[in-house]
Input
Amino acid sequence: MRLALALAAALAAAPASAGDEPEAKAEPAPDRALVVAIDPGHGGPHPHAGARGPRKLYEKTVALAVAQKLGAFLEAEGATAVLTREEDVELPLSARAHIANEADADVFLSIHCNSMATAEGRQQAQGVETYFLSPDPTDAEARLLAELENGGPAAMPVTRQSDPVKGLLDDLSLGQARNDSARLAEFVQRQMVRTLRAQGRGVRQAPFLVLSALKMPAVLVEVGFISHPQEGRKLARDGYQERIAKALAQGVLQFADAVLQKRLVAAGERPKQAAPAPVKPPRSVAGLPGSR
Ligand SMILES: [Zn+2]
Output
């Protein structure tokens, strides 16, 4: 997996690097592997540790562990994984998006754990949910979650625009990526529910800043409630983190096969060579039950 930290630092200093390609690339080149940007949520000291679970388990730790395992699974399948962070370091949301865009990633996943604020909520709420970007949250809960993940209601936007999410949605060139994000969310959510046998809380929408500046299909996954007494303990386990990673890998590969590959075939009039497949055919990740 490529180390993205140096890149992150460089990008934070100079967002528009001199090596930029002038033209945006809408499709993966026909001869390269699928590139998946993986973003372990949060990182660094308080208040950047994310939600807290049992026994001082922090969201940032679970997110990083799952991200690293996911990267390994995807690379074993022939994809290229680009992690936005590989250590317990603070990283602005805008830098995470820059890393994915600069890597020309085909898919972006931000990994998080959910949490409830009230004692009653902590006892009850569990399960997995997958979000894609929308200015209109699915409901009040989705809006609160986005506020939390964005760093509070007064979080700095990615750009200086007053409403970066709306700005993005006005950009028609990104419309396809937005439609694809909804499809990606469905694949990923379905695999998590199946593989983890977790409670499925559905595919949802909210204005997440980390998703708002991306050029590729992107989702934010809440892989479980770290605040739930049982699910929180599960999230700490290596074996369970591995199952989450396998589920996410499976979802991404299925999406790549069903959506990205089909589009390239449909585009038909590709010049030059009868292209080799741009993305690996989805094979079931070892140890997974039914991969369809
Ligand atoms: Zn989070």
